[in-house]
Amino acid sequence: MTTDALYSAVRALPKIELHRHLEGAVRLQTLVDIAHDAGIEMPEYDAETLRPFVQMMPGETHDHLHFLSKFHTLRQFFRSPEIIQRVAREVVADAAADNVKYMELRFTPRALSNILNCSYEEIISWVCQAASAEAAAHNIQVRYIVSMNRHESVEIGEQVLNAALALRALGIVAIDLAGNENGFPAEPFRDVFERAKTAGMGVTIHAGEWAGVESMYTAIHNLGADRIGHGVRALEDPGLVDLLTERQIVLEICPTSNVHSGVVSDWTEHPIQALYKNRVRTTINTDDPLVSNITLSDEIVRALEHMAFNLDDIKTQTLTAARAAFLPPDERDTLAAQFETWFAAAVEKQN
Asked: The domain containing residue 320 runs over which residues?
């Protein structure tokens, strides 16, 4: 299959995204518009001038410091409710244009409120209401994961959880712990996540990326993780691989992000291949489409071109994502059945 034909086939596939950060999915041109309108000083109000500050560039060092530095710049752009609502709408529209049919969009109220100095409840309302309205217009189902950062205080985490619980009727289905894993363990947030779990929230934890397997054990045993963001270090401990398969814990893997953050040296060496072969429940996601300059279709094409995957493997991982969605069991079953129907119809059409 030619590259063009492969892209066409992948773009036509209905998709699921379980791990996409709103803050890392802004359109580059939208940032330029905001900079111009808000008077943010730039040499030129041009996308190519801004690109190196918010996107990993060819030849740039691949490590967590360079990767996270993009977010230091991005945080400067969330300056009004209108900007946050615009970004939320555009993130959903972009996913729908890529034939994503179900997405769990995560966002960090603390990051979005730094300049505005508004409440976390206001941030959550603006994001969820704008995104849900856009979803209804684009035939995409969207739910929300509210994130807190491990390198910020537990008190902030408690406040974020309180806001998420108060507004969960807006479509909030889970809580996430993100941020810099190096030197910032998850253990201090144990009580926060126990309370989320008791309240019936889904729990996903960034772990096993920049920190090693111990971060994954902590996520599972101490924070009650249903899913793990990244988790690509799991192969360092066969016992952990056994635990993941035994408990059916799903990994939200973002291959290009893992390369850009320096965790994986190259797409061809990505551990998702061995994890999948060892029956770990893996899914393919984008993480931060702006920062990595990708769509979910791009991510899947790279998996097909550079890894030992075929389209059936992609469909299997998509169905894994459907069955791991933070939805009530009946809605999850309906979602998985819909994807099975779509995939069966595609096969029948080819024959």
From this structure: 3-350
Q: 100 in the Ramachandran plot: left (φ > 0), alpha (ψ -120 to 50) or beta?
A: beta
Per-residue pLDDT tens listing for the chain (351 residues): 678 899 999 999 999 999 999 999 999 999 999 999 988 887 788 999 999 999 999 999 998 889 989 999 999 999 999 999 999 999 999 999 999 999 999 999 999 998 998 999 999 999 999 999 999 999 999 999 999 999 999 999 999 999 999 999 999 999 999 988 878 999 999 999 999 999 999 999 999 998 889 999 999 999 999 999 999 999 999 999 999 999 999 999 999 999 999 999 999 999 999 999 999 999 999 999 999 999 999 999 999 999 999 999 999 999 999 999 999 999 999 999 999 999 998 766 665
Rounded to whole angstroms, the Cα distance separating 143 from 35 reads 29
Residue 238 and residue 221: Cα distance in Å, rounded? 17
CB within 8 Å of 68: residues ≥ 6 apart:
180
Distance CA(252)–CA(232), nearest Å, equals 9
What whole-number distance in Å separates Cα of residue 255 and Cα of residue 304? Answer: 12
DSSP β-bridge partners for residue 100: 15
- How far, rounded to the nearest angstrom, does the alpha carbon of residue 60 sit from its chain's CA centroid? 22
Q: Give, rounded to a whole angstrom, the gap between the first and last alpha carbons of the chain.
A: 17
Residue 340 CB neighbours (<10 A): 14
| Distance between CA atoms of residues 170 and 128, nearest Å | 6
| Domain tally, the chain | 1
Locate tokens 């996520």: which residue? 219
Cα angle, residue 236 at apex, residues 230 and 237 outer, rounded to 5° = 105
Q: Which two structure tokens, joined as six digits, stand for 338? A: 């819909």
In this structure, which amino acid lies at residue 70?
A: K
23 is catalytic: no
Tracing tokens 């909030």 back to the chain, one arrives at: 172
DSSP code for 187: G
Cα 48 to Cα 291: distance, rounded to the nearest angstrom: 14
Q: What is the CATH number of the domain that holds 52?
A: 3.20.20.140
Q: Which of 17, 23, 134, 209 is catalytic?
A: 209
